[in-house]
Sequence to fold (95 residues):
Amino acid sequence: MPKYFFHVHDGQSFPDQQGTDLANLTAAQLEAVQLMGQMMKDDSQAFWNGEDWRVQVTDEGDMTLFTLHFMAVQAAAIRSATPLLTAPPAPSLQV
Fold:
């Protein structure tokens, strides 16, 4: 049975050192979708930080077989309704 490695990137990298024995590529694709869904469920607030979340799946030879990308992007109308944090004005220099 082939072994697949599910490397997670969500602002940090978590390489899969153990791998998972699965019947075939279709089973690995299903596993990757379930893993990503569980990650989003477990840390749904962090998902909105604007970083690309991905699961990169490789085989035993470290060849990338596929990658799932997930990223939340708020619409411009939502972003503009949220006040931006601004730095206080710089002090004026007197000569």
About this structure: Residues 25-42 form the longest helix (18 residues).
